[in-house]
Structures are given as C-alpha cells and as structure tokens.
C-alpha cells in the first residue's frame, strides 16, 4: 500500500483516525536523524506527495515529503516501514 493510500484510509476510512498515527521521519539535526510526529498532538495537512504539521516552536507548518517517512504506527502497530537499501559489505 502506498503512503497516500494509508493516509487516505486513516483520513476517510470508517473507524480510522489520523489522530491515531505516529509518523517517524528523517530529520537531520535530531538525535539519530529521526523525529516522531504524533498526529494526535498537532494539526496535520495531507497532500498528494507530502504532509505538513504545525510546529509550535517554529509557529508555522513544516513541509515533509513522503520520501522522508521511515515508519508509520497506528497505536502500537507498525503499518508502514520504509525499505532501506542494503549497505555495501553487509
């Protein structure tokens, strides 16, 4: 299932809510270059190839392209995990 389909399901699907999602993204400068966004705690806008979330520290919406998404969890269940290319020598 593609990311836009996952977001559509949780946006419009019966019994599904965007607020149940926690999305882990690549975020340079954060510990381990990862940041998790809890959709229940921020305003989120979903678009065709990206999403935006409201960052209180910046007092603005932050643009996140889908290719930076590493993982999506609905409650405790992983519903998406990005496939990472193998590193040489592994």
TrEMBL record:
InterPro entries: MJ1316 (IPR040459). Residues 3-82 form the MJ1316 RNA cyclic group end recognition domain. It comes from the Archaea. This is DUF504 domain-containing protein.
């Amino acid at each position: 299932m593609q990311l836009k389909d996952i977001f559509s399901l949780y946006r419009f699907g019966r019994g599904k809510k965007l607020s149940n999602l926690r999305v882990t993204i690549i975020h340079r400068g954060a510990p381990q270059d990862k940041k998790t966004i809890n959709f229940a705690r921020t305003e989120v806008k979903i678009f065709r190839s990206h999403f935006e979330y409201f960052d209180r520290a910046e007092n603005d919406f932050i643009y996140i392209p889908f290719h930076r998404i590493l993982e999506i969890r609905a409650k405790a269940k992983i519903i998406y995990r990005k496939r990472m290319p193998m590193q040489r020598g592994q």
